[in-house]
Amino acid sequence: MIRFVFVFLSILLLSGCWDRKELKEIGIVGAIAIDKDPETGEFILTSEILNPAAQSSQNPSPGKPFLLETTTGKTIFEALRKTNQMVDRKSFYAHNKVIIVSEELAREGLISVLDSFYRGKEIRGYVWICITKETSARKILEAENVGVSRIPANFLKNVFEQTASHLNSVSTNMLTFYKDALEAGTNPVAGVLLLEEKDKDKHSQKSNIRLSGAAMFKKDKLIDFLNESETRGYRWITGDIKTGAISLPTDLQEGKFVSVDVVSMNAKIVPDVKGEQISFSIHITEEGKVTEQQATVKFNDSKQQIRFLEALEEENKKVMEEEIKQVIEKAQAFQTDIFGFGSALNKKYPEIWNQVKDEWPERFADVTYSLHVKVNITSSGLMKGPFKPE
């Protein structure tokens, strides 16, 4: 009898996935773009639905590897469900890679826009969130030039992942955005997508997608944009840098530059409270190496090379300090603490934070800070000196 019960239970447990979905029955959504109709106030949702037949490596069909379907709705969820009225497969969002939101909609606030995705759990939390600048979200998915990839969603995913190899933009997923928007003492940033004309010919419809700078938020509302220099300053402060190139002028030869590649860096924000005065010190250490030298002047001796590296470290430090001051000035002007100064204050002085948290945007706009930047170029990559043709 016991054996019979065991066999019966095994059959039930090994009977397969009762709710599984066959690939031929679903429409895999790779990307979502969200705009808002200024006349009706309804959401305009564009879904990029993949076409597996066109992507087959053995016998691909001649059609496009994806199709774009646009629906509208008073809510995001309504617009999502309307997609099933236009596509012969049930929309499947688990593999969605990016959510693109228009600038106009982001200024109204993103929490309500993302609520359906976050609450419904149909889309995974690490999906990339980005904002468009001076273009609609749908036009990003309509762009023809998407690099090597034939599918915009794959192109965008790879571009966001490449922010680890340069300094000029940021990438933020949905979970990070929610955390920074809801956490006391910090505000989120998000990646920014631009649409640039490839040709100057006004009749050309071709355009390039570019990830550049950052979108600066106050809680969940877009406040303003950071340019690439300001974005580098933001990333210096937050320590969100693994590697990236910096071009610095060299005193060896006029008009020539040196490229320094960031090998590693560390950043720390330290709050200090004296009476009613709150201040912060920002400590940043960077280790780099020379990867390119345009000047063709040879060093006379090792002392000259050491002096050159010391001057290069000082120039690198100067650039970092200028970019940091630039972005802090802008954030303070908009009263949005995107660096986490308030969060650092809360961790070290929780009792002080409880006193100022309700008025932190105003207090943040006036806080003083000191910069402590140290640059160490550990590898010259110059061998005996810059190469000079004989």
From TrEMBL:
Annotated Spore germination GerAC-like C-terminal domain residues: 212-381
Keywords: Coiled coil, Germination, Lipoprotein, Membrane, Palmitate, Signal
GO terms for cellular component: membrane
Cellular location(s): Membrane
Annotated signal sequence range: none
Keyword Coiled coil on entry: yes
GO biological process: one example: spore germination
UniProt superkingdom: Bacteria
Domain Spore germination protein N-terminal, first and last residues per copy: 19-192
Pfam families listed in its UniProt record: Spore_GerAC, Spore_GerAC_N
Topology in the lipid bilayer: Lipid-anchor
Coiled coil segments of this chain: 309-337
Family: Belongs to the GerABKC lipoprotein family.
Name of the protein in its database record: Ger(X)C family spore germination protein
Organism listed in the record: Niallia endozanthoxylica
